[in-house]
């Protein structure tokens, strides 16, 4: 099953499945990045990866150039991707502001230094 | 079929309460900076004015909500106003006003405009979640709640604990949003449209049977991402840390808003894939079992961990986790089998829980001051001697959280019992039994707080002064919880009107 | 008459609320006068209520209703309709909660008992409580209201509401004004009973849900529910399950043998007034629950499982409680254990499931309230004087406190079951009823009479007779308390009504029996000639039927 799926991916012309694979890889990489990076900026990059992994899926599903074997899709996918890009920017702005303040207080942006609250 | 622009213009009058709030938000954000000095210090008393402005905006929105009966049951546009929307709007505005009152005295004058504006923006986000009829709107609404929340957690006190709480919440919240987004893209891929009504149509026509795996995956992702908002196990771990680090107004907000948002989104999304002819694997058992398992784990773990907390805010955080578990029972109950609607029981419980928990945090804020903050259980010692009225109101709220009469918490639990036990299945009955066991466990730590207030003697030293506004707001909550116990019919009818 | 009931319900609550409201500002010593006034008004109202009820009963004769639970006076008002109310058709299926208050003979008797003990409690705390007085009396009065509420609630959920509500004031009474271990005792009492009553709630919900599915429109109303279950009995196995769930909470409340561990602790730590109310009326909530839920609605389960189980547990409770009482050195603990034994008789009577036994059971409920209440009162009196309740520290008090000794002897005799005093008719009827059902259980229970006489007389001998022995430690307190004096006028006022009631019931139990008899007959009718169900055969038949279907 797995091997035949891989074989299909490698032999067939690029389709939705390929984009989904890339999207999934981006998502997982982003998640790993958020989990392991100690630097706040690294975590922010992870966030971007995760969001854009989903974005890629949206665009692939919505694209009329890719045969997805399903119903003809409208512009919804591309639209939602645009919204998500804007949102990601907004989120990054807030996150950077907080990170900057964190730096002012801790002289570092190592998020592991945030360890006061536990118990 | 109308164009999107036409749909949007038609939709404007459905959005009137939200638009009022958004205008207020813009005014506050834009004019706020002009009233503070360059160092960020505002004139003393400024926070009261901004608080009053926020209350006026909420009042106007509430008036529009009350006079409107704009209910369009099923609409193809991006917005959909139905009984759920009406209920959520009313609840959010009323509770938002309470939170706003508590917030007034917890911020310095320099940051009051932004804080109140963030609170209003969050309220708009909650309402939009309940209005959404499109994945895009739903996701934007979720983010409209999240982003101002980060700011609100961050603004009031710039201590290190506060920052840490904000950073922890922010990182996890963004991650959960990403999971939700990923689930949404799967749903979109399977259905081919982002419109919720459209998705329902596609699924019920059985046009997407080939995409069963996608739908199954998307349901799992959506439940996982949204359980973060609910504070459900295993996504609960942020709650105690975050609650510990933030002021009580923000804690009150956090114990209500994310839960409302999460349940509203689940109530919109789950019916799409539940029981409609997608596949047997997704419809019915699997999603239901998943939520049931989460509910059991959530309430049990929440209550057990709350038993040994000494910090009030951590304790209340775990209590809020446990209550999320109780409420999830309402999602599991299949209403067609039971005389009592599970969703109705959930919405009723949510309203009463939110009212009471906001009351608890308001009362904490009322007796807390900079010199003698009330953060740990022992800080409450002897409260019945120092502030008897506050202690009594707090006791009423805590009994209500336990589920004892004569408070509305008892009716909330009774509804859940009737719904789950009346369903007649083994699953429903076991949930009811777990709920009973948990209610008994939770009594222990609520009683402990009451014990400390009434039976311990206060430590010598300066007595804390009462902050009037939050104390009054909290007392109102406790009085309301008794009044709602006596005449719950209106609230119940509003809650039960929405049948997904 | 129903207005009278509401006033009776509201007077203690209102007085309690008033005390709470002015707790910070009022003259502390005036609190007890307000409390005394409130409880006296409540007593007067309850007596008036009883008189009215007697008149009504004489006028109506046999109740027209054929339900096993038939209140003669009713008030109903919709509280909450849980379920879909959007269409009339759906609303008929919804579960309707009601404010359903009513009165039948049993509730009238229990309400009068509660009101009487309320006055006694206030008088007993007159000098004993010096700290946070208004809160104390407020809790006492609110508790009294809650208990009256239980006795006049005829809606299943409303009953549960009052049943649970009584926990709250009693929790405060024990935990604030109790003895050295009060916190632990209060929490144990609270959690124990709360956990039990949650299981009971599940049982109540099953009762309601089953009837609602069967088409009963107001399934929470106890009279309608009982009538419905008379016409549509549940499957016997389901009955057993529901019976077990309901029993957990009630058994803990009574308390019956293995569930009694919270009781001695709570009694020892509670202040005198708390003990009087706890023993006098709160324990009765358990037996009252059996009488209102299990006996009328689950006849097969009561007969087949309830009878042997309750009888065996009660007999064990009687013997065990008596033996424990025998070895206690603390008089209050002795009285607490005697409660376990006495309530065993009460359960034995109720589960005889015939008119004699159940009449005896209800009488025993009243008697235990009177005599154990009085015992706790007297124990409280000499504790106030000597600050000890240990038998080893005390002796020969009769020579110093002759009046108190006389009172104690009188009450002990009542408690033992001396003919002519109130214990006698209750215990005799209970045992006679049980004897008709099953002589073995009755004979085993009767040993408790002997044991009861033994431990009470031993206690009397130690404390009141023999050479005078007083604790020396507290002599230095005398300048504060004055010399040890015999019963004061106030204490006499508390004790006399109880003693008079004991004597009255002992000599003329008939009026009391007449009040409760019709309601008991209505329940006992269910068990006339009812054969026990063979549960095992039923289960076998069910399994066979199922396997038959599969084939």
From TrEMBL, chain A:
| Keyword set, alphabetical order | Cell membrane, Membrane, NAD, Oxidoreductase, Quinone, Translocase, Transmembrane, Transmembrane helix, Transport, Ubiquinone
The listed locations are:
Cell membrane; Membrane
Coiled-coil ranges from the UniProt annotation: none
Indicate where this protein is primarily found.
membrane
User: Which segments cross the bilayer?
Assistant: 16-34, 41-60, 80-103
Keyword Mitochondrion attributed: no
Q: What is its EC number?
A: 7.1.1.-
Instruction: Report one GO cellular component.
Output: NADH dehydrogenase complex
Task: Report the function annotation for this chain.
Answer: NDH-1 shuttles electrons from NADH, via FMN and iron-sulfur (Fe-S) centers, to quinones in the respiratory chain. The immediate electron acceptor for the enzyme in this species is believed to be ubiquinone. Couples the redox reaction to proton translocation (for every two electrons transferred, four hydrogen ions are translocated across the cytoplasmic membrane), and thus conserves the redox energy in a proton gradient.
* Oligomer status and interactors: NDH-1 is composed of 14 different subunits. Subunits NuoA, H, J, K, L, M, N constitute the membrane sector of the complex.
Name the UniProt record assigns to this protein: NADH-quinone oxidoreductase subunit K
* Gene that this polypeptide is encoded by: nuoK_2
UniProtKB/TrEMBL annotation, chain B:
Q: How does it sit in the membrane?
A: Multi-pass membrane protein
Predominant location of this chain?
membrane
Protein keywords: Cell membrane, Membrane, NAD, Oxidoreductase, Quinone, Translocase, Transmembrane, Transmembrane helix, Transport, Ubiquinone
Top-level taxon in the UniProt lineage: Bacteria
The entry lists its GO molecular-function terms as: NADH dehydrogenase (quinone) (non-electrogenic) activity; NADH dehydrogenase (ubiquinone) activity; quinone binding
Can you cite a GO biological process for this protein? ATP synthesis coupled electron transport
- Give all residue intervals belonging to the NADH:quinone oxidoreductase/Mrp antiporter transmembrane domain: 132-430
Catalytic activity annotated for this protein? a quinone + NADH + 5 H(+)(in) = a quinol + NAD(+) + 4 H(+)(out)
Q: Does the keyword Amino-acid biosynthesis apply?
A: no
Q: Could you say which EC number(s) this protein's record lists?
A: 7.1.1.-
User: Where does it reside?
Assistant: Cell membrane; Endomembrane system; Membrane
Spans through the membrane: 19-37, 49-66, 86-104, 116-132, 138-155, 167-191, 211-230, 242-267, 287-306, 315-334, 346-367, 388-407, 427-447, 468-486
User: Which major enzyme category is it?
Assistant: translocase
Q: Name one GO cellular component term.
A: endomembrane system
Subunit structure, as described in the record: NDH-1 is composed of 14 different subunits. Subunits NuoA, H, J, K, L, M, N constitute the membrane sector of the complex.
Q: Say which family it is in.
A: Belongs to the complex I subunit 2 family.
Protein name as annotated: NADH-quinone oxidoreductase subunit N
Gene encoding the protein: nuoN_1
UniProtKB/TrEMBL annotation, chain C:
For membrane topology, the record states: Multi-pass membrane protein
GO biological process: one example = electron transport coupled proton transport
TM helices/strands, residue ranges: 105-123, 135-151, 157-177, 189-212, 237-256, 268-291, 303-327, 334-353, 365-383, 403-421, 441-466
Subcellular localization, as worded in the UniProt entry = Endomembrane system; Membrane
| EC number annotated for this UniProt entry | 1.6.5.11
Sorted alphabetically, the keyword list is: Membrane, Oxidoreductase, Transmembrane, Transmembrane helix
| GO CC, any one term | endomembrane system
**Has keyword Ligase?**
no
Enumerate the InterPro entries for this protein: NADH_Q_OxRdtase_chainM/4 (IPR010227), NADH_UbQ_OxRdtase (IPR003918), ND/Mrp_TM (IPR001750)
Family, similarity comment: Belongs to the complex I subunit 4 family.
* NCBIfam families attached to this UniProt entry: NDH_I_M (TIGR01972)
- What's this protein's name? NADH-quinone oxidoreductase subunit M
């Amino acid at each position: 099953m797995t091997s035949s799926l891989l074989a299909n991916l490698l032999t067939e012309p690029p389709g939705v499945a390929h984009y989904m694979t890339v999207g999934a890889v981006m998502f997982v990489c982003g998640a790993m990045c958020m989990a392991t990076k100690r630097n706040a900026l690294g975590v922010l990059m992870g966030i971007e990866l995760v969001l854009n992994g989903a974005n890629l899926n949206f665009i692939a599903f919505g694209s009329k150039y890719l045969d997805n074997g399903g119903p003809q899709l409208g512009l919804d996918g591309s639209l939602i991707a645009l919204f998500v890009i804007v949102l990601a920017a907004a989120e990054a702005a807030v996150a950077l502001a907080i990170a900057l303040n964190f730096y002012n207080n801790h002289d570092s942006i190592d998020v592991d230094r945030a360890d006061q609250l536990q118990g | 079929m109308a164009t999107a622009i036409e749909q949007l213009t038609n939709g404007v009058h459905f959005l009137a309460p939200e638009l009022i709030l958004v205008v207020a938000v813009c005014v506050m954000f834009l004019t706020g900076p002009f009233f503070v000095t360059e160092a960020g210090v505002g004139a003393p008393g400024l926070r009261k004015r901004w608080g009053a402005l926020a209350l006026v905006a909420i009042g106007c929105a509430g008036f529009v909500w009350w006079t409107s009966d704009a209910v369009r049951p099923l609409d193809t546009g991006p917005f959909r106003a139905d009984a759920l929307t009406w209920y959520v709007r009313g609840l959010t505005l009323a509770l938002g006003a309470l939170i706003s009152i508590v917030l007034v005295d917890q911020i310095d004058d320099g940051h009051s405009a932004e804080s109140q504006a963030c609170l209003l923006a969050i309220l708009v986000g909650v309402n939009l979640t309940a209005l959404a009829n499109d994945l895009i709107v739903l996701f934007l609404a979720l983010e409209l709640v999240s982003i101002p929340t980060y700011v609100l957690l961050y603004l009031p006190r710039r201590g290190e604990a506060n920052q840490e709480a904000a950073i922890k919440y922010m990182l996890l919240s963004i991650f959960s949003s990403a999971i939700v987004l990923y689930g949404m893209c799967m749903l979109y891929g399977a259905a081919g449209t982002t419109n919720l009504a459209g998705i329902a149509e596609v699924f019920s026509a059985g046009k997407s049977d080939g995409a069963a795996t996608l739908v199954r995956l998307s349901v799992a992702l959506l439940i996982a991402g949204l359980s973060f908002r609910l504070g459900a196990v295993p996504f609960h771990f942020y709650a105690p840390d975050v609650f510990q680090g933030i002021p009580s107004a923000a804690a009150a907000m956090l114990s209500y808003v994310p839960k409302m948002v999460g349940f509203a989104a689940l109530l919109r999304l789950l019916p799409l894939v539940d029981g409609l002819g997608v596949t047997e694997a997704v419809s019915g058992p699997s999603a239901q079992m998943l939520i049931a398992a989460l509910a059991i784990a959530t309430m049990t773990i929440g209550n057990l961990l709350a038993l040994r907390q000494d910090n009030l805010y951590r304790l209340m955080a775990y209590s809020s986790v446990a209550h999320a578990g109780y409420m999830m029972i309402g999602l599991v109950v299949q209403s067609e089998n039971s005389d009592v609607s599970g969703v109705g029981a959930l919405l009723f419980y949510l309203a009463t829980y939110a009212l009471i928990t906001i009351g608890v945090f308001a009362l904490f804020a009322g007796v807390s001051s900079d010199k003698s903050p009330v953060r740990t259980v022992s800080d409450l010692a002897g409260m019945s001697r120092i502030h008897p009225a506050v202690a009594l109101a707090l006791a009423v709220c805590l009994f209500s959280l336990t589920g004892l009469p004569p408070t509305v918490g008892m009716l909330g639990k009774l509804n859940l019992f009737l719904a789950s036990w009346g369903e007649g299945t083994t699953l429903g009955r076991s949930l009811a039994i777990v709920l009973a066991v948990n209610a008994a466990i939770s009594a222990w730590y609520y009683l402990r707080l009451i014990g400390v207030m009434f039976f311990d003697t206060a430590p010598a030293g300066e007595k804390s002064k009462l902050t009037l506004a939050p104390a009054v707001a909290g007392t109102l909550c406790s009085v309301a919880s008794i009044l709602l116990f006596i005449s719950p019919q209106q609230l119940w009818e509003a809650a039960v009107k929405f049948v997904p | 008459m129903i207005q009278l009931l509401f006033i009776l319900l509201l007077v203690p609550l209102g007085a309690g609320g008033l005390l709470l409201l002015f707790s910070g500002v009022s003259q502390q010593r005036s609190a007890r006068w307000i409390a005394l006034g409130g409880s006296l008004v409540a007593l007067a109202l309850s007596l008036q209520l009883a008189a009215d009820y007697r008149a009504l009963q004489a006028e109506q004769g046999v109740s027209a209703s054929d339900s096993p639970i038939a209140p003669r006076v009713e008030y109903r008002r919709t509280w909450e309709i849980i379920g879909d109310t959007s269409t009339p058709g759906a609303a008929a299926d919804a579960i309707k909660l009601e404010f359903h208050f009513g009165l039948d003979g049993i509730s009238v008797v229990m309400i009068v008992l509660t009101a009487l003990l309320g006055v006694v409690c206030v008088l007993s705390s007159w000098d004993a409580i010096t700290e946070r007085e208004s809160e104390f009396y407020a809790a006492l009065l609110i508790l009294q209201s809650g208990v009256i509420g239980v006795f006049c609630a005829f809606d299943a959920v409303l009953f549960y509401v009052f049943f649970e509500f009584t926990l709250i004031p009693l929790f405060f009474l024990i935990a604030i004004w109790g003895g050295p271990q009060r916190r632990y005792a209060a929490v144990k009492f609270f959690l124990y009973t709360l956990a039990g009553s949650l299981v009971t709630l599940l049982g109540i919900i099953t009762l309601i849900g089953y009837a609602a599915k069967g088409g009963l429109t107001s399934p929470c109303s106890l009279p309608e529910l009982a009538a419905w279950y008379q016409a549509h009995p549940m499957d016997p196995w389901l009955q057993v399950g529901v019976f077990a769930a309901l029993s957990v909470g009630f058994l803990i409340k009574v308390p019956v043998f293995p569930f009694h561990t919270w009781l001695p602790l709570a009694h020892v730590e509670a202040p005198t007034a708390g003990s009087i109310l706890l023993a006098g009326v709160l324990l009765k909530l358990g037996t009252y629950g059996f009488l209102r839920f299990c006996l009328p609605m689950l006849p097969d389960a009561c007969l087949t499982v309830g009878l042997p189980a309750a009888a065996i547990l009660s007999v064990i409770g009687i013997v065990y409680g008596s033996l424990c009482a025998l070895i206690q050195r603390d008089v209050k603990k002795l009285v607490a254990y005697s409660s376990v034994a006495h309530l065993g008789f009460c359960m034995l009577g109720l589960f005889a499931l015939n008119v004699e036994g159940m009449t005896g059971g209800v009488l025993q409920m009243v008697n235990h309230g009177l005599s154990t209440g009085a015992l706790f009162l007297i124990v409280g009196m000499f504790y106030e004087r000597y600050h000890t309740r240990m038998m080893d520290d005390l002796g020969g008090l009769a020579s110093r406190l002759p009046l108190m000794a006389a009172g104690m002897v009188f009450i002990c005799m009542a408690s033992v079951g001396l003919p002519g005093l109130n214990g006698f008719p209750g215990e005799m009827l209970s045992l006679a009823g049980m004897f008709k059902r099953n002589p073995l259980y009755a004979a085993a229970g009767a040993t408790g009479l002997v044991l009861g006489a033994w431990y009470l007389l031993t206690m009397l001998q130690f404390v009141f007779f023999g050479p005078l022995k007083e604790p020396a430690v507290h002599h230095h307190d005398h300048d504060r308390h004055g010399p040890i004096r015999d019963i004061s006028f106030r204490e006499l006022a508390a004790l006399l009504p109880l003693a008079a009631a004991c004597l009255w019931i002992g000599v003329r139990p008939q009026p009391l029996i007449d009040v409760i008899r019709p309601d008991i007959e209505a329940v006992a009718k269910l068990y006339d000639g009812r054969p026990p169900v063979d549960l095992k055969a039923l289960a076998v038949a069910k399994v066979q039927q199922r396997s038959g279907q599969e084939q």
